Amino acid sequence: MMFGAAANAQNQITISADQELSKIDRHIYGHFAEHLGTGIYGGVWVGEDSEIPNTEGYRTDVLEALQRLEVPNIRWPGGCFADEYYWMDGIGPRDERPARINTHWGMVIEDNSFGTHEFLRLTELLDAEPVVAMNVGSGTPREMQQWIEYMNFDGDSEMANLRRRNGRDEPWGVKYVGVGNESWGCGGNMRPEYYADLYRRFATYIRTYSGNEIFRVASGFDTARYWWTDTLMDRAGNMMEGISLHYYTIAGESWQSKGSSVDFEEDEYFSGLQAALRLDEFIEGHSNRMDRYDPDKRVALVVDEWGIWTDPLPGSNPGFLQQQNSLRDALIASISLDILNKHSDRVRMANIAQMVNVLQAMILTDGEDMVLTPTYHVFDMYRTHFDARLLHTHVQVDDYEYNGERIPAVSLTASKSDSGQLNLTLTNLKAGEAQQVNIDIRGQDVGGVLPGKILTADEVNAVNTFDDPERVTLQEFDGYQLNRNTLTLSLPAKSVVMVTLE
Ligand code: AHR
């Protein structure tokens, strides 16, 4: 490793370890699992009679990989699927459940073998909080109310007794509920005034059963559609605990030409990172609108769909949203997580889209095979920030210039755990150049550096495949030097690094 004198470093960062900001809620690291393609069926659920090794019907390999990640929450059943889902289809004996058509995602048959009990058992096995998206688009407040009663009531009611007859005595105590999804689009094509009134109506019937209080998340918009947030906060802000924001990164030219997930070079590497960085602007914009009605930030911004969306893999069903996951996508994850962490005073929950086999997935499966994606490894490293305090940082970094466009060359999150440990994650966005970074730590004496981790590869589009599952994987990182309270790091090109200071 090359270490120059501190004054010559390209990037100067000061971390104030005594200036603790908001808590980085672990729920920022949540996942999204929709009934879409093989996101559930084949990817998570194979059924007890499957030849694929399983635990109570869940793939054992996937379950164990997700357990290692300490998944804090899972959003289910959609997505667009949620606003066409009738929950009673997914309870009772599996062989008696009705076959429906998944009209939004490929017109395939949904046999409902994965329903409420199967989802909530999954969250128990993962020790994750369930986030259940209610059907507002085509459902009724009554259906929603009964579903919540079924999941949360401990007493002697028709719904609670139905749950017991279906094999579950204790209520699950579901806390997080989404009230519609993309209600401006696939969730009903509503206008904000109409949705705000409908939201108020649905929210009225979200009851607290047996002390299980619900955190209600209203359906927000995407990108810069701030007028939606304005109207909702104005008309219904006092009846919600969260409002969502969706943001998908497109590396290609447009939604019609999103770009390949495998076959790209530095142009779509750069444009992907550049597009991902815009999440900062959108969070800022929505949060500012929310401040007008909620200056104390009582209502959370819940970024419950984010990640890169590419063209589907050639030969795959376009309705299944299958894509590979490269080193570029891992960096898109790390810089997006830095942005979410930075706004953790307002953003207290987020969900990457999606958990398995769909869009920017953690895990890919094919029959018996399973592979962990580069994005999985970023989520693994970033566990270091779970529930830690964001630290104040002053950042002066180099630019990464490509074709006349510029983005910052380094992104980071610095946090402090309750134990006083300092957690740093840094990304060098430059495709072809190592970066030296000097970090001055103020306000706390640093005694030493624990062994670090790094994720990088030879190419920006390097992927893990079933034949070559370890091409992009975590390695030990020793490219640092500590001199009293100054840490000097040498970050290889296109890498994500984690170090911990004691
Ligand atoms: O994640 C895929 C889809 O993207 C979701 O179903 C929908 O909410 C969004 O448009």
The hetero compounds bound to this protein are: alpha-L-arabinofuranose
Largest sheet: 10 strands, mixed
How are the strands of the largest sheet arranged? 23-22-26-20-19-16-1-21-25-24
* Strand percent estimate: 25-35%
| Low-pLDDT residue intervals, each spanning 5 or more residues | 1-8
In CATH, the topology of the largest domain is named TIM Barrel
Describe the protein in words:
This protein has 502 residues and is α/β, with parallel strands linked by helices. The chain has helices at residues 60-69, 116-126, 141-152, 158-165, 192-204, 226-236, 266-277, 279-293, 327-342, 374-382, and strands at residues 11-23, 30-32, 54-55, 58-59, 73-76, 100-102, 108-110, 129-134, 176-179, 215-218, 242-249, 300-308, 347-353, 363-366, 369-372, 389-396, 399-402, 405-408, 410-416, 422-428, 435-442, 449-455, 475-477, 480-483, 486-491, 495-501. α3 (141-152) crosses α4. Alpha-L-arabinofuranose binds at residues 34, 78-80, 181-182, 305, 353-354, 359.
Give a brief outline of the structure.
The protein has about 500 residues and is of the alpha/beta class. Helices cover about 25% and strands about 30% of the residues.
Key terms for this structure?
single chain, 502 residues, alpha/beta, Immunoglobulin-like, 2 domains, ten-stranded mixed sheet, 10 helices, globular
List the helices and strands and how they pair.
Elements: E1 11-23, E2 30-32, E3 54-55, E4 58-59, H1 60-69, E5 73-76, E6 100-102, E7 108-110, H2 116-126, E8 129-134, H3 141-152, H4 158-165, E9 176-179, H5 192-204, E10 215-218, H6 226-236, E11 242-249, H7 266-277, H8 279-293, E12 300-308, H9 327-342, E13 347-353, E14 363-366, E15 369-372, H10 374-382, E16 389-396, E17 399-402, E18 405-408, E19 410-416, E20 422-428, E21 435-442, E22 449-455, E23 475-477, E24 480-483, E25 486-491, E26 495-501
Parallel strand pairs: 1-21, 2-5, 2-13, 5-8, 8-9, 9-10, 10-11, 11-12, 12-13
Antiparallel strand pairs: 1-16, 3-4, 6-7, 14-15, 16-19, 17-18, 19-20, 20-26, 21-25, 22-23, 22-26, 24-25
Helix pairs in contact: 3-4, 5-6, 6-8, 7-9, 9-10
The site of alpha-L-arabinofuranose (AHR) has 10 residues, from loops.
